[in-house]
Amino acid sequence: MLIAVLERLLWSSRRPLSPGTRAGVGAAAILLLCLAILEWADGPEPHYIGLMATAPFLAAAFAPWRSVLVAGGLATALGTVFAVMGGARGQTTLLNVIGIALATGLASAAAAVRQKQAERIAELSHLAMIAQQAVLRPLGPTVGGLSIAGRYISATAAADIGGDLFEAVETAYGVRIIVGDVRGKGLEAVRLASIVLGSYRHVAYDRADLRAIVADLDRAVARSVGEEDFVTAVLVEERGGTLTVVNCGHPAPLLLRRGNVIPLEPPAPAPPLGFLPSVKARVERLEPGDRLLIFTDGLAEARRDGRFFPIAERAWRLLGHGTVGDGLASVETALVEWVHGRLDDDIALVLLEYTGPQPGGPMPSWEVGTAPSSARPASEDGGSPPRTPSPGLPPDRPDAGPIQSGGPRSTRTA
Asked: Model's pTM, two decimal places?
């Protein structure tokens, strides 16, 4: 009965009561009901009127100030009724009733402050969510000739993103993907991740060679970090069925092909971005149905009782079936089960599937500015064919080594 009366009093603008309001008002109503029964059973002399002052404070823990005011008003009215019915004329009973009214005022003020803080936190959370979505945009379902999905698994429940990053763009040189991991955590890691993604989204469209992109990103990182900070990253390019992978101190992607899992280790190790990486590309020819998993070290280093998550052994069973989005969901479920729901590091996952050559797709970069041909020249070592250099870069030569990022800054040692 009391709950129904309070809901009728609080029903304004024909809007349903929020869960917090219902919880606060309901708890206050139950407390008042218990005290009323206790007071009625105790006899005509009022003894428990003062306890009714706790009702508005209980409501203030959950409900907005208007609801607290209504609950406190009802408690004051109920206390007055019992005082009059008991025929009490003493100073103590009067002070108890006045105390309920004062408690109502104090509880309403506290609820108003709490409500304002909650609204401020909700506003900041909304702005943070918008900023996070701008930094880490969703992927898929398709980019160029690839089916693609991305997933970010945060080790912190209060944050959707951290220092891990991914992005996929379709350019004149094919589909280009980056997955990276910033050293450190917190807002500084998010700041550096946004710098890397911002630079990548700019240069990925302009540079004809992944090594030139690495050089640009290395300079961007070096300008923005301290001596001990760095970013591991792997850059992937798919064009015309040819997959090119450049690795800067990052875990090797896993190629899933006909039931086999192939780690795409780089031809030579290279340090992370920020330490002048000198990279060499690994080139693979894709087949329709091939899938590629790119991940950050949080996946490989997730452990249970000292045992690391066996992603290479379980990759095909988890990722080889269904859509790419289903595959990432299976990995996340298996991972959370493995670590019993407790992750030590954020994880970024990107899964792509090559569906075959796309008619009318982007022309491979080595044919830009030339007439398309059914055959293209390949390098003697089976790597990428000669490419059209980007502005400011020397053309590929048979004796040319890997491009090393440079710039007017001191050399740092990994």
From this structure: 0.67
